[in-house]
Amino acid sequence: MRNAKKKIELIRDYLPEGCENLLLRWFREVEKDFELVISKERASKLGDFRPPYKRNELPVITVNNNLNHYSFLIILTHEFAHHTNWSKYGNSIKAHGKEWKNDFATLLGQLVLRGIFPEDIESALENQLQSPTATIYSDINLVRVLKKYDKGRKSLLLDDIPERSIFELNTGRFFRKGEKQRKRYKCLELKSRRLYYVSALAEVKLVNNSK
After folding, report:
1. How many domains would you assign to the chain?
2. Can you tell me the mean pLDDT for 110-139?
3. pTM for the whole thing?
């Protein structure tokens, strides 16, 4: 594929050591070209794959620029698996169907076999290798381990604070933490007195720890 080396040069500073040659091989061997974009931080997504809307356009892979090296590589692999699927099947399959799961697990397995990840991340990736999820936020253990490698950011998660604690989200809204419902907590917004389900992995600022 054209411009494979330029793509590696674009993302080199965001990657962990030891993965460049493998990524270069992926980019060269994939049937169809794509545009790779490093995006500013987005609260709603860590990366995405966008198929072309017009015949002369390239599909686009984006990855957020605020991720640590290991998170960046995992998200890039996730989105590249979408591109390999699109290259083979077009828009005829489900976004996170069995074809994507097979491709993502295969690509991720190649990285694991090369010892790219620290032992704790490698262990946390076992679930993704066996049953990939549509978003890594569905894998609480993996997200917790990856956050340990964030530089300059000490993340406090909703899952970490006591029940009935008052906390603030990055939207500036204040809540009281309630009971857990699977992977979310039922939380009371203090201003509106309405109940919301908030992800256990939401980053929060603890305001009051009294009950």
Report:
1. 2
2. 94
3. 0.82
